[in-house]
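Problem statement: downstream parser choked on a complex file, so we are re-checking the raw output for the flavin mononucleotide run. The parser issue turned out to be on our end (a line-ending mismatch), but while we're here, posting the original submission so the record is complete.
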Amino acid sequence: MTDLNAALPLPVRSDEVLARLAVRRSASAQLLAAPGPSEAEIEQILHLGARTPDHGKLFPWRFVVLGPQSRADLSEALAALAETQGRVDKDLAVLAKLANPPLTIMVVSTPIQGHKVPVWEQQLSAGAVCMNLEHAADALGYSASWITDWYSYDPAAVALFGVKDGETIAGFIHLGTLSEAPLERPRPVMAHKVERRP
Ligand SMILES: Cc1cc2nc3c(=O)[nH]c(=O)nc-3n(C[C@H](O)[C@H](O)[C@H](O)COP(=O)(O)O)c2cc1C
C-alpha cells in the first residue's frame, strides 16, 4: 500500500544515471537471449514502470506478462491468422520477435472515454510507462526492445491477446540480455528540434 504521508527524497545529482541515459539503446528483439529478469526483478520492473506521470491519477494502462509458453502459443495462432489473411512473408517473419526473447511485457493503453482528461493524454501516459519499463530494465542490466508490429493493430490479432474494445496495445517490451554491444543509431540534430524563447 502506498504511504501518502511519506516524504520522498529530493533528487540528487547522479553521474551514474546521466552516463547510462547517454548511452541507453534498444536491442533488436531477435538478439535478446537468456538470462531474462528473475521473478523479483520482473516485480521491480513493473513497479518502476508504473511510477509514471498520468493526468488525473487514472492509471490508464495495464500490463500482461507474457512468458515463453504463452508467446509460443500466440505466435502459432498469429501465424495461422496471417495465413488466412494472405499476409506477406515479412508479416510471418516478424513473429520471431515475439517468440525469441526471454520475457515480454505487453503494455495495454486503457483510456476512459468521455473523461475530462483527454484520451490522447491517457495514451501518452501508456507510452511513458513503456519508456519507464525500458529504463528500469536497463538499470538492472537488461536490454529491451519496444515493438508493435501488425498484430498490435489487426483486430483479430488483438483479440488473441485478450485486448478489449477501447483498449490499444502501446507496445510489447521484450527483455533479455545481449551478447554483443549494440551499435549507435542516428540521433536528431538538436538544433533542428529545439527552439529557445526568452
Ligand atoms: C511505439 C513504438 C513502436 C515501435 N514498433 C516497432 C516495430 O513494430 N518494429 C520495429 O522494428 N521497431 C519498432 N519500434 C522502434 C524500436 O523500438 C527501435 O528499435 C527503437 O526505437 C530504437 O531506439 P533506441 O535505441 O533509442 O531505443 C517502435 C518504437 C516505438 C516507440
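For whoever reads this later: The chain has eight helices and four strands.
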